[in-house]
């Protein structure tokens, strides 16, 4: 007898910088979320779609839980709490080297308890701790909530992918496919391009420029190259909050901006499976993080 088809929405939630975007990219098998070793890398709800033989899992990657200091931060936190309510299953991601349940994780647990949703606890970065330390952490968390499962992983290693997907599928309800089986994200090409450029800027600039970067694709059109093959023409602006930051992003003789553009273009061509002609500029937009019309 053929298995009934299951489907559902799975929200990945946790503090900033615990590896949520790395995990969603692993599970989906495609690069859909920006990854950088910085807080607030994900600013929107990013959906990734996994089509399996007997299920369709729609992942929602959310901004990391942090103390809001601007309107942008407040909006990000609201997105994360909203994703708990919207989910059929929650993946609660924590770091293996935690010694206690911190304030941010306690807040997440409170919200999960309020929702009473099926939740799988994912303990990431287990390569950083001993088995004894991991066992203590599991004991600490299993008394906090009736988790459907507790899965220790390293999100950078592919061997954990099926373990997590199998557990999620087990907890889904019978339902239809919400997206076409060929799709792996509901993000547009424009959004993916913005995510990619911002990721490369964050990676290359390291701590030189605080998190005041916003990328907006101003122009995106499809053309054909000399061989008659399809290609994207993309023009994007990297906004920053200070003149001094603008100089750092552009770099000496424009070298930093060229490097950001080159790495972003390479990723896009691999992701979009087509050639990309990318042009980037840098502009100053003071206090954009408190201008809701700008980043909505």
Structural overview:
By secondary structure, the chain is of the alpha/beta class. Strands 1, 2, 3, 4, 5, 6 and 7 form a seven-stranded mixed β-sheet that branches. A three-stranded mixed β-sheet has the order 8-9-10. The longest helix has 18 residues, at 255-272. Helix content is 36%, strand content 25%. Residues 34-44 have low confidence and may be disordered. Helix 6 (189-205) crosses helix 8. The chain has two domains: 6-174, P-loop containing nucleotide triphosphate hydrolases (Rossmann fold); 189-295, GMP Synthetase, Chain A, domain 3. It has nine helices and ten strands.
Quick overview:
This protein is of the alpha/beta class. It is built from nine helices and ten strands. The protein folds into two domains: 6-174, P-loop containing nucleotide triphosphate hydrolases (Rossmann fold), CATH 3.40.50.300; 189-295, GMP Synthetase, Chain A, domain 3.
């Amino acid at each position: 007898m053929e298995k009934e088809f299951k489907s559902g929405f799975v929200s990945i939630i946790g503090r900033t910088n615990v590896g949520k975007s790395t995990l969603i990219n692993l599970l989906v098998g495609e690069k859909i979320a920006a990854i950088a070793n910085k807080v607030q890398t994900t600013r929107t709800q990013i959906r990734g779609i996994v089509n399996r033989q007997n299920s369709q899992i729609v992942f929602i990657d959310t901004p990391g839980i942090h103390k809001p200091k601007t309107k942008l931060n407040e909006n990000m936190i609201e997105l994360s709490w909203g994703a708990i309510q919207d989910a059929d299953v929650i993946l609660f991601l924590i770091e293996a080297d935690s010694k206690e349940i911190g304030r941010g994780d306690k807040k997440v647990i409170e919200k999960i308890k309020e929702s009473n949703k099926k939740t799988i606890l994912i303990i990431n970065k287990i390569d950083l701790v001993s088995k004894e330390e991991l066992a203590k952490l599991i004991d600490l968390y299993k008394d906090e909530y009736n988790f459907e499962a507790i899965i220790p992983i390293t999100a950078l290693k592919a061997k954990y992918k099926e373990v997590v997907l199998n557990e999620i599928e087990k907890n889904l309800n019978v339902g239809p496919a919400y997206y076409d089986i060929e799709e792996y994200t509901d993000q547009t090409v424009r959004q993916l391009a913005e995510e990619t450029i911002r990721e490369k800027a964050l990676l290359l600039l390291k701590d030189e420029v605080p998190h005041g970067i916003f990328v907006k694709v101003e122009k995106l059109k499809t053309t054909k190259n000399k061989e008659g093959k399809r290609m994207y023409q993309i023009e994007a602006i990297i906004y920053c909050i200070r003149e001094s930051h603008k100089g750092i992003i552009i770099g000496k003789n424009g070298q930093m901006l060229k490097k950001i553009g080159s790495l972003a273009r390479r990723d896009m061509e691999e992701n979009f499976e087509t050639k990309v002609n990318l042009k980037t500029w840098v502009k100053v937009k003071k206090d954009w993080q408190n201008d809701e019309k700008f980043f909505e």
